[in-house]
Specification:
Elements lengths: L49 H13 L21 H6 L16 H18 L3 E3 L5 H18 L7 E5 L5 H8 L3 E5 L9 H7 L4 E7 L11 H10 L3 E6 L18 E4 L1 H4 L14 E3 L11 E4 L6 E4 L16 H37 L15 E3 L11 H10 L6 E2 L9 E3 L7 H20 L1 H6 L11 H6 L11
Parallel strand pairs: 2-3, 2-4, 4-5, 5-6
Antiparallel strand pairs: 1-7, 6-7, 8-9, 10-12, 11-12
Bound molecules: pyridoxal-5'-phosphate (PLP).
Length: 485
């Protein structure tokens, strides 16, 4: 193995040091450590010289793939490049303590209130809470509004949330967490909600329907008006999963489509890098009939002195869902993003996100198969199609992309498409980047036909190529064991 790939333990040589301290010229304080706290055995830590240590960590950092060093077309969860300026501005607020008296935090409260009203404007809703800490947390929060609404009306039998099978996987999970039963309905052949199946599914037990739009197929739901009518006529409420708002913002608004409650992901559409495991922010917007049930605290204005304050005195509120005020840093970045783009810029971002996805889909037509071949939104789904006859599947193509310098798209999702590859280029990428990626995808398709063995061997540019996936999952080796000499 090349020494670049060695573990730090494998490079260790007894006695080597990465630092050089002068001799102690004051009395040693080690005598004051009680015996019971002293280590009894030598710690088995790696011992390296400084340059080897620096190279070890530098090389490790270079193995890290991120949106700052390459194209990252992951579908379903927007992983886009965001302007660095938003990152620069958020720390300006980081000395504000959450327990500060509201009269000392008027700037933060104003920023949050302005943010709420901008989101209302973008989404066509009447009020927003910024508290939920993620998309799935927003779903849970939204569903608790639905529950509180029905229960307040004495409608205790509405226990079922209907979820189309093209919904994001968090939707049924959140519905179950909120205490509902989940009824899944199949998609129609065109990928949209099957209206007959929906008519069949609604009834006096319907609490609501959750719609991921665009769906996980990357398609805009064409029958929203009918869906809204069917669900509302049955007494249910409509939930809009707006995690991928970069497909529609500035163009259509969930509130205008008849939705009662929705969430968006600030950490996808509105800046903040997504994918590092947090923090995130999943604000929830509601129509006026759900405002009384919103989580506390709410930001209110004191009519006497015009000061903003946090109000927990909301008798119908279902309570608190997050300590303090949500992930404030994420909210600041989203605020900067929205203010710097403006309404026109946000609309352009959506237009470019949709244009880029359609461009890729169009260029890959005939090379890969497109299961639902109609105009897509911010992402497109393709499959290897006829390439499978060469014994190659989606996973092989993803691995071949790694050797060509790309993070693979989402694969084997959505579940309802066999051998799916879900590609989301996002609005941030240039035409040149898209063209290079398209060339790489075509190059792989060519190599499948001429040299399938090479595709099966990929990736060859990574320290580990193809681990035995079953053993890796069942018996993972996650800790270095020193070989017995
Ligand atoms: C990402 C995503 C979610 C979940 O958001 P998290 O912040 O990861 O919890 C929900 N719905 C859709 C459509 C998404 O893309």
């Amino acid at each position: 193995m090349r020494s670049e790939y060695k573990l730090i333990f494998e490079r260790s040589h007894e006695g080597r040091r990465a630092y050089d301290l002068p001799e102690l010229d004051v009395p040693c304080a080690c005598g004051s450590i009680p015996e019971e706290y002293k280590a009894t055995a030598k710690l088995d830590l790696p011992e390296l010289g400084e340059v080897d240590l620096v190279r070890h960590y530098t090389n490790l950092s270079r193995r890290n793939f991120g949106v700052d060093n390459g194209f990252y077309p992951l579908g379903s969860c927007t992983m886009k490049y965001n302007p660095k300026i938003n990152e620069e501005l958020a720390p300006m607020f980081d000395e504000v303590h959450p327990l500060l008296d509201p009269d000392m935090a008027q700037g933060c409260l104003h920023l949050m209130r302005d943010m709420e009203s901008m989101l209302c404007e973008i989404c066509g809703m009447d009020a927003f809470t910024l508290q939920p800490a993620a998309g799935a947390h927003g779903e849970l929060t939204g569903l608790m509004h639905i529950r509180a609404y029905h229960e307040h009306r004495g409608d205790f039998d509405r226990k079922v949330i209907i979820v189309p099978d093209a919904a994001h996987g968090t939707n049924p999970a959140s519905a179950a967490m909120a205490g509902f039963k989940v009824k899944e309905i199949k998609s129609a052949p065109d990928g949209g909600v099957d209206l007959d199946a929906l008519r069949e599914a609604v009834g006096p037990d319907t609490a609501g329907l959750m719609l991921t739009n665009p769906s996980t197929l990357g398609l805009f739901e064409k029958n929203i008006k009918q869906i809204a009518e069917i669900v509302h006529n049955a007494g249910g409420l409509l939930y809009y999963d707006g995690a991928n708002l970069n497909a529609i913002m500035g163009i259509v608004r969930p509130g205008d489509m008849g939705f009662d409650v929705m969430h968006i992901n600030l950490h996808k559409t509105f800046s903040t890098p997504h994918g590092g495991g947090g923090p995130g922010s999943g604000p929830v917007g509601v129509k006026s009939h759900l405002i009384p049930f919103m989580p506390v605290p709410r930001i209110e204005e004191d009519e006497e002195n015009g000061m903003l304050y946090l109000d927990c005195d909301k008798p119908l509120s279902f309570g608190k869902i997050k300590s303090f005020y949500g992930n404030f840093g994420v909210i600041v970045k989203a605020y900067c993003y929205i203010r710097s783009l403006g309404g026109k810029g946000l609309k352009e971002a959506s237009e470019n996100a949709v244009l880029n996805a359609n461009y890729i889909m169009h260029k890959l037509r005939g090379v890969y198969e497109i299961p639902h071949d109609r105009t897509c939104m911010h992402e497109c789904v393709v499959t290897p199609g006829e390439l499978m006859q060469y014994g190659v599947n989606t996973s092989d193509i993803a691995k071949a992309l790694i050797d060509r310098g790309y993070h693979p798209p989402t694969i084997y999702f959505p579940l309802i498409v066999h051998e799916a590859m879900m590609i989301e280029p996002t609005e941030s990428e240039s035409r040149e980047t898209l063209d290079e990626f398209i060339e790489a995808m075509k190059d792989i398709a060519e190599q499948v036909k001429t040299d399938a063995a090479a595709i099966h061997a990929a990736p060859v540019t990574t320290p580990v190529g193809r681990p035995d996936e079953v053993t890796a999952a069942r018996k993972p080796v996650v800790k270095y064991e020193k070989p017995v000499e």
